[in-house]
Amino acid sequence: MIEPESEIEFSDQLVIRPAEQRLAEVILKIPAKEIVLVSTGRSQAAAMILDARPSSKVTCWYTDSYQASLAKEYLSDSPANVVCAANWPGAGPLKCDACAEDSDVEAVCDLAAVVCSSRGESELTRDIMQSAYANLKIGGCLAVSTDNAKDKWLLNQIRIYNKSVKIRNFSDATVYYIIKQKPLKKIRDFSFVLQFRDQGNLIQLYTRPGVFSHRQMDNGARQVLDTVEVQPKDRVIDIGCGSGPMSLALAKLEPTAHVLAIDSSARAIDCVARGIELNELTNVVASINHDGKIDEPGTYDLAVANPPYYANFRIAQHFIETAVAALRPGGRLMLVSKHPKWYEENITRWLEECEVFPSRRYSMATGVKPAKQS
Q1: Which CATH class is domain 192-368?
Q2: pTM for the full model?
Q3: Which CATH superfamily, name and number, covers 8-179?
Q4: SS3 (DSSP) at 111
């Protein structure tokens, strides 16, 4: 299953993970000129392919801009093209009942190579594999690897497209590959639209695999909405917005407010854009952002965030620092967490008038940007 993973560092060298290493070894024996690679690391397989076949065209597709930036840095001396996009590079969203001559899908490669993790999200893996197969030319090859040497699940998924699967077993990975013999007759739509209410407003939320809290309203976002107050003409920034429940609800609640929704995920931003259309909003702007640098810093009145819990609070710290840069002096940050201790010990490093308090199964952390930064 697809899941971005941290790189292994050894003697200042980025070590390729086994599933990607084995995938590269297999596909180097498969003739192909136009290759799209989906990697859980920094697309080291692309460098291996281009070293062996310098005339090949290799595109590395990421849905996360931070992961894409790491790959671009790693491949800076390589002709590989690194793309960050919500959908398969060169193609828009797949449409239901796409088939043969009537298909809206344009074949864009003759080899699609997908690295998977046994710890990843199953629905995202299905989504990516469908996109890979749909965008292959007839006669092209779909090659998929997993870090599970005893895998059965991924094998069953790839058999949906062609029951004749070639298998390469290794002690640390498994690689499967098939040949595309005919177009897909039907495209499965993995997106989902749900509805929730906020202070009397009905909000429609568009979600996709790979975006936080797919198919459900996140309870953490619910806690922020139940706690935060937005004033007329407030400038609001939603940091790590995901599919946009907080951005959309706050914009609906206060039509005179301006809301900026940012996330490192191109798919998340695609979801927010769909949500803007579904809710007929004109006061929300969604933007891909992983470095925390925004236009018009120091002008926002309110920042909201629901930081992830992994990465030893490094992402939480990044969210706070992004908020501090965005807020005007006296502007407030409101965020939600299930781990209040870190915020109790650290949030005063950046903010004043800080408070950490329980809210149902969560805790809220809030503070105000000082008039003068120390």
Answers
A1: alpha beta
A2: 0.92
A3: Vaccinia Virus protein VP39 (3.40.50.150)
A4: strand
